[in-house]
Amino acid sequence: MKKIFVNFIVTILFSLLSINPQSIAHHKENSFPIKKDTEWDGKKETKKDFENQAKQEYCANNAKAVSIEVDGDPVIDQNTGKPRISEVDGKLVFDKVTVYKINLTGSHSNKPKKVTNNKIVPNLASMNFNADWQKVKLVEILKMFCLQDSSLDRPEKFKGSYLEEFYTKIALDNGFFKANSDEGDYNKKLLEGEFGEEILKLGIVINNPNAVWYVPEFLAEQEAANKKAQKKAEEEAEKKRIAAEKEKKRKAREKAKKEGNQQWISENKQNYLDEFGKKLNEYENKITELNTKRNKLETSLVSFESLMSEAEEDSKNAIADLVNRDNQDIKDLREILRDNIKQYLSKNDLGEYKDRFKKIEKVNFKKYKNYTTLKNLIKRAEKSNKAANFVGTDGVKLGIFTFKQKKIGFIQEFENIKNRDLGSGSVEDEDNMDKLNKSIENHSEDIKNYVNFKVDELKALDEELGQRIPWNLIIIGAVIAIIIIAVGVYLYFQRKEMDQLKREAEEKVGSLKNEFEGKLKSTSEQIKSVSRNTQRSQQTPLQAEDIVEEKPKTPEEIIAEKYDELVSDYKEALDDFSKVAGFKQKWHGLALSRKERQEGTKTILVNSSRAFEKAEIWCVTFSDKYFAFPGSTVKSNMATYMNLDFEKASRDFKGVFAVSTGSSYTTEPCVLRRGGAGFVVERVGKIIFPN
What is residue 505's predicted lDDT score, i.e. its pLDDT? Predict the structure, then answer.
């Protein structure tokens, strides 16, 4: 900063000189008069004293005290009391007041300036001055700067003052000598000195520590402008420096903030994406289930319509083809069938089922609010690399930075839906499908039981009646034949035996009649018995066997069965690689690996960068329970894990699976629980490699 100021002073110095190059040659010729205030009161006897005083104070070539008339206060009109207006030019009339001034020529500022770096550099050529350097004398330059010793009084004139000795010393120090003498000569021309033209660049040496100089009055305005420009330049430079410093700090802060953001993203983003994806899989599995239900429902509706059509056709044909239509049992059964046809084969029911299915068919299961919200959330989360987008209004502090935003983040959005179903209407739509499917199933059973079964019963009865022997007619014929024979015997034998024969005949006919009526009654009872059995079977067609009520299972038994199913599926996946994908989807598989840096007594598992099929540890879940199995790659690469006394297996599965040997390759899963961004091993599993 000091160096800048020094250069500034030197620049001002030569800028002042650059205003008028002829001032160097003859300062008097380039001076112009200026007026200065004075305490002189106009008395002749003190005039000279004030003139000399001013000449000395301002280092002027000439000073002259003068009196000047100037306008004073406005003249007040005695008649109107208002300022008087000139009748000539219409302007205000002022009283004339005499003031006193000192007219100065060739004067300088009365404020001294310190000579810096012990030099005055008259490098006027570099400032494009047209001064005739061959004619300029050293003393003219020194007088131009009004060079003085600040420890001494300013002289009234140069001749006879200390300035002659002062300037002579300066001439000596800079190699300006009188002819044939070692005495300094300040009247030498500037370029005649020891240094020649180099003095314009090297500067005039001023060894006196008290040396000061004064700015010529005619250059004062330019000096002020230069100082103002320099100040402005310094202020601009300071502003730029401050701005650069701020920008530097801002960039450093941004860099640190960016690094903190990247650290959070690298450590947490994928974990949250996995959690979001797991919920999306849950939704998509439910959508698949709903689509399957709807497809089955459509098939059931088509089958139901075919069942109704076939039942109606069979009923009409059965009634039309009756042989024994006059039989009372046939009539009764036919009326029952007709009533059942009206009740169970109504077209209105089929139309209602179709209308209900049309509404279900129009539903887009992928348009439920929570499902679309989650898909959009995952899309935005995958694109974002800003921690604030994830943490939202909750914020997270990393070092000196807190990452947050004004609206809720991805994590908060997920929290709002993670325990919810697909969205508004999904439960109602599924319930409607279940109810419609149940209605169709029940109606189908009713058609089978009350229409199809009755048709079969009617056909069977008609066929049975057609195949029976007409015992009633045979018995009647036999009776008639016996009567005729009895009559003939009666006529043939003696009259006396007529009465006995008649009684015997009557007894025989009565016996035969009773036998006939008994058989006829027995036949009727058989028909009625069949009818009653049919009615009973109509009311309880499916109760052929007593239903044995199954004892409900306990939650522990349900979980045990589920676990056995999981272990069975795992073993199949180990033996058949094509079943790994199905195993992963069914049990919500997740690829894990052991965290490299473990803290505390618990072992931590985190998401693996490998695909599930190639991961060393498979995490599966059901009923809010998490289990970890060794992946299929462990079994397929047993030799690698068993090498060097199980070095790799012990390292990779430390705290996860206890490694030992046995007769065959077997495993037991370890039990996990959710913890932070990963899983904590609650119970260590086992891996037994074959000997």
Answer: 52
Is the distance from CB of 541 to CB of 449 less than 8 angstroms? yes
Same domain, yes or no: 461 and 473? no
* CA 567 vs CA 101, 281, 285, 572: distances in Å: 117, 22, 22, 9
Q: Which residues contact 353 (CB under 8 A, 6 or more apart)?
A: 301, 304, 436, 439, 440
Contact, 600 vs 544, CB < 8 A? Answer: no
What CA–CA distance (Å, rounded) separates 218 from 221? 7
436 and 475 fall within a common domain = no
The Cα–Cα gap between 640 and 261 comes to 39
In the predicted structure, residue 132 carries a pLDDT above the cut 90: no
Provide the phi-psi class of 613: left if phi over 0, else alpha when psi is between -120 and 50, else beta.
alpha
- Give dist(CA 573, CA 564) in Å, integer: 14
| Share of the chain residues as helix, strand and coil, in percent rounded to the nearest 5 | 60, 15, 25
HEC per residue, 110-139:
CCCEECCCCEECCCHHHHCCCCCCCCCEHH
Extract the tokens encoding 21: 């190059």
pLDDT at 124: 41
Q: What's the structural domain count of the chain? A: 4
Decide if 455 is inside a domain: yes
Q: Is the domain of 462 the same as that of 508?
A: no
The whole-angstrom separation of Cα 187 and Cα 532 is: 160
* Structural contact between residues 27 and 146, judged by C-beta atoms closer than 8 angstroms: no
**Same-domain status, 535 and 582:** no
Closest CA to 617 of 608, 630, 604: 630
Please check whether residues 596 and 506 belong to one and the same domain.
no
SS3 label, residue 593: strand
Asked whether residue 620 is assigned to any structural domain, the reply reads yes
- E-assigned strands of 499-646? 590-594, 604-607, 617-622, 625-630
Q: What is the 3-state secondary structure (H, E, C) of 178-224?
A: CCCCCCECCCCEHHHCCCHHHHHHHCEECCCCCEEECCEHHHHHHHH
Q: Is residue 245 part of a domain?
A: no
Which stretch of 93-97, 222-226, 422-426, 507-511 has the lowest confidence by average pLDDT? 507-511
The radius of gyration of the chain's CA atoms, rounded to the nearest angstrom, is 64
128 contacts 17 by C-beta, under 8 angstroms: no
Does residue 475 sit in the same domain as residue 618? no
In this structure, the answer to whether residues 483 and 585 fall within a common structural domain is no
Enclosing H/E stretch for 613: none
What local confidence, expressed as pLDDT, does residue 221 receive? 60
**Phi-psi label, residue 25: left if phi above 0, alpha if psi -120 to 50, beta otherwise:** alpha
Q: What is the pLDDT of residue 542?
A: 39
Let me know whether 281 and 361 are in one domain. yes
Cβ contacts of 658 within 8 Å, gap of 6 or more: 684, 685, 686, 687
Closest to 534 measured CA to CA, from 683, 332, 385, 687: 332
Q: CA-CA distances (angstroms) from residue 268 to 272, 385, 540?
A: 6, 11, 63
- 688 phi, psi to nearest 5 deg: -110, 110
User: 466, 486, 502 — which closes off a domain?
Assistant: 466
Q: Determine the structural domain holding residue 34 and report its residue range.
A: 2-222
